[in-house]
Amino acid sequence: xxxxxxxxxxxxxxxxxxxxxxxxxxxxxxxxxxxxxxxxxxxxxxxxxxxxxxxxxxxxxxxxxxxxxxxxxxxxxxxxxxxxxxxxxxxxxxxxxxxxxxxxxxxxxxxxxxxxxxxxxxxxxxxxxxxxxxxxxxxxxxxxxxxxxxxxxxxxxxxxxxxxxxxxxxxxxxx
Length: 175
Known about the structure:
The structure is a single chain. The chain is mainly α. It has one domain. The chain is built from nine helices and two strands, in the order H-H-E-H-H-H-H-E-H-H-H. Helix 2 packs antiparallel against helix 5, helix 5 packs across helix 6 and helix 6 packs antiparallel against helix 7. The N and C termini lie far apart (about 35 Å).
């Protein structure tokens, strides 16, 4: 918790420094600021989740390759545990999903593909590195859904305001 709180000033400073550096290199100030904040935001909202997911646990790991088997097992637990598992998996790539369309002229399709590939990579690493964790195709699905929902919110609420009008059609029309 203390590390998370201490990281906030570092992220703010990194965004300011990166934005100013880009302005000095000739980037339009509004674009320099937007890209700096979104890039640092993507890292700051995704890396802690990946760090946690790749932290080893004691005990043997498990693998679920058949869709919805792991999710069905999760519904056998108490509601708070279920909320933490599914809610956490929805949030893993949500920061990326929300901020990527603000940073780049991409649509929800690219966010979903990128988050799906990243999530599959993380789940594969959990298995290959023998971290004592559950590697599950359901985690990939839920991580990807979280990124897609966040991208949909971003594309409808933020992107039309944050980006110049010439980009709006690319965002709304798709990939």
